Amino acid sequence: MKRLLVPVAIFVLVQRTEAANSSPVAESYKAVADKLIAAALTDNHATDRLEYLCDRIGNRLSGSASLERAIEWAAAEMRSAGLSNVQIPPVKVPHWVRGKESAVMLKPIERPLRMIGLGMSVGTLPEGITADVVPAENPEKLASLGRDAVAGKIVLFTADADEKTYRTPGYRQAVTVGPSRAAALGAVAVLVKSGFILQNPRTTGLDPYDPGIPKIPAAAVSVEDALMMQRLVARGTPVRARLAMEAHQEPDADSHNVMGELRGRERPEEVVVVGGHIDSWDVGQGANDDGSGMMASLEAVLLIKRLGLQPRRTIRVVFWVNEENGGAGGRAYRAIIGNDVGHHIAAIEMDNGAEKPVGFSFGAADQDKKTPRAFARAVEIGTLLKGIGGGAITPRGGSGGDLRSLTADGVPGFAVKTVETLYPNWHHTHADTFDKIVLREFQLNVASLAVMSYVLADMPERFSDLK
Ligand SMILES: [Zn+2]
User: Fold this and answer.
1) CB 3.0-4.6 Å disulfide test: which of 64, 138, 233, 438 passes with 170?
2) pLDDT of 18 over the 50 cut
3) How far are the Cα atoms of 59, 362, 467 from residue 370, in angstroms, in the given order?
């Protein structure tokens, strides 16, 4: 007996060491992951669909006719590609209309300013608002100038936004709560210095105006024009400008989410969600944001199907509506699934542009600490994407945008992360167009979504049970 025990003990030891180094899940899905990656890297369907969406349908602001055309087209694409249970459940969305808009510097010299109204802003009277410009870095600095310096003026927020910039706190504050803070001090309009150069100002959605404070119009101006006005004022030269915007809110519009499924073979009631948002801003083509996320998600699932794979659980492709200026689609999806949220194993969203993927951010708040086994499993699955450089799993940040209502109820969330090298220059601008999509990089995104969603849906344990 003793002589037998020794080899058994060694065998167990070897098994354990192997498990610690390469993981069983990663091992058992290596072959299928490699197949999915190879298929994605020779696939043109996603980019063909994205080109059609961009060039034939166009940008897709909530409430617009082009958004509704995109919804009908996307559902038809899902049906013709063979997804089952394709639906377009109704969602009420805000309907903000930009209209014509312009800004001009009148003093010390007259010249047009490159501008773009911020989403959900109120407009001006037809003759516009003419006033002196008072620069301030951010709402706090503005408050320190005092009411006398601000009342009756156009405030120019100048917080720097360096790289990935639209997320720096000063800039975020300026474009979200800036107008209400300025209006509370008597300002008549707000301009915000954009994040990027090349005379290409970017829009984004304002936070709802503070009730009880006058609503004043807000627009972004190009970095170049903002810096010019800032320089002039710093030299003691008064700057006078006129801002005219037709922006207004119409009654909420009828719209839809879009969803379709690859049904699971063993536990079809359990669901992994993968998707992007179908709405976009009303400038550019919404190519990176987020046409790329939608089309990559759809193709990831279609590749799985085309390879004859049927995961244990259902993979549901969801195109959420109204991510940009309200989040109604994400909330509506949560409402429609009701108690089925308990059957949601994981949710993945691609909404950071289509440049080269580096991995996924996982979870909300400190979910990675609360669920260390799930995080460790995600890291293991990520090793399957090592070969394409797309498997780094980072904690936090997987709960953005449309997934917030799901992650709030405990569904593990994943957000695709990319290198974001040039994307911030195009994000929410006229330059977010199809020509920015690099085929190979886009294919890598399809590959990483296919592998991540397939393994999460197919692995023996429920991912959401790993704590
Ligand atoms: Zn987006």
Assistant:
1) 138
2) no
3) 40, 12, 7
